[in-house]
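Q: Hi! First time doing this. I have a protein sequence and I read that you can turn it into a structure. Is that right? Here it is:
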Amino acid sequence: TSPNVLYQIDINPMKTGGNALTLAQIEIPTIRTYDYFMGNCISIDGKYVYIADTGLTTGNIIRRYLLTTPYDITTLQPHDKQLTYTSSYTGVTSFICISSDGTIFYARRTGAIEKFILSTPWDISTATLSQSIATPQQDTMVIDPNGTRFICWRYNVGTVYEYTMSVPHDLSTATQTATTGFPLQQPSGWLALSGVYTTDGQYLFTHYPPGAGRPGLKPQSDNEGGSLTSTARASPEGCARRSAAEASPVQRNPIG
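A: Yes, that's right. Below is the predicted 3D structure, encoded as structure tokens:
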């Protein structure tokens, strides 16, 4: 699939055993600076889409795009704000997420999570690096909206790790609290690349590349939407309601 296409997908039919529906797809109106368009997310009010332009080494640009009609990617405008930064960690930025008030931004790189503070809500150009935490051999992440826990996994290893933050949104207080085997794994060995919770916290949907790299979505039956121990919780910030999903290179197709 083209690495420059943004997809909007309706996952609601999957709750009752149906198939996800592609609502729209558009060409991303930006020429990439680095290797891939990868992590992406949408603001809770549906006004902004954020997309990571990321390299295999340390380069990153996070761009903000305005939707003139909330949640409708066909109304996406050229980017108006961006953050360019060099990470202390190598690997692509496979996941990004912004808090419901637009003041905290997370970027997930291979083996690390980085947290940024936005001095002006929703304006990614005002972000400054606040914290980072190393999580070796884990490169995909889903975080709770209250900032008290997150789960992450390596895209080709069937183990999911859960971390709890004793102080909300404080990565320095994160401790690993649970692990579990992932319920879905492709015969080729490729695993789910990213995930999103529904707003009611009942379902966790994961995105993985079936066959020759074509994007696919699966609802997870393992404590759907809950913690690894069974407690249900809400969707990650910036990933509520209809999700904006982008197709990345073959075998790297996260939905955000």
